[in-house]
Amino acid sequence: MQNETIRIAVTKGRLEKKATELFEKAGYDMSMLKNRGRQLIAKISAPESNSDGSVIEIVIAKPPDVLTYVEHGVCDIGIVGKDTIIEEGGKYFEVLDLGFGKCRFSLAVKKGVEFYEGHGLKTIASKYTNVTRNFFESKGMDVDIVKIEGSVELAPLLGLADGIVDLVETGSTLRENGLEEIEEIADISARLIVNTVSMKLKKQRLDKIIERIEENL
Ligand code: PRP
Hints:
Blueprint: E1 6-11, H1 14-25, H2 31-34, E2 41-44, H3 49-52, E3 56-61, H4 63-71, E4 77-81, H5 82-88, E5 93-97, E6 103-110, E7 122-126, H6 129-138, E8 143-147, H7 154-157, E9 163-168, H8 172-176, E10 179-188, E11 190-194, H9 196-201, H10 203-215
Parallel strand pairs: 1-3, 1-4, 7-8, 7-9
Antiparallel strand pairs: 2-3, 4-11, 5-11, 6-9, 6-10
This protein binds 1-O-pyrophosphono-5-O-phosphono-alpha-D-ribofuranose.
């Protein structure tokens, strides 16, 4: 079906801005998305839209929801950080590394603390409890994990945790709060993911979008 709608779930916030720039560079008309106000779905036009009537909708969602919508096939494509992919898992194809939203997962502690010294059970605060669990399991180290929803740097400052596992981009949040990175866990960037069924049923149209994006990275 030539003019069946293609839906792209885009992570709200920083990645949305970068993704908009990338799609624009690739020739898409993003004006309805940019002027969407509080609307959560916006139509964008592909260069071929006028001739074949094809419709593309952008759905703006929180990171784990981007995965959910793509996994369930209500969105064909997703743009989401590798951090969310590692933390949440799921079944979809990870097709492109978009190269923006670069940062890393790191273990950080209060400056000067010798984290690996001593035998007591350590407490780690993180929004990413699966990443944290897997990291310490790979070291054969048992830790207590406390889930924190944001500004996780507070946890060691308040005495709740010995360390944090969090995203570090410039390192200034850590520095300004007297914390330091002691180990890098994984490199992160935005990825383009595709629903496994859409990849087959809408292959031609999806290939065209992916190709255009890839050419403009
Ligand atoms: C992220 C992350 C760090 C900060 C790192 O938080 O959790 O706190 O950015 O960036 P930096 O190394 O450049 O200082 P975000 O701003 O997304 O908010 P959050 O803490 O509420 O998740």
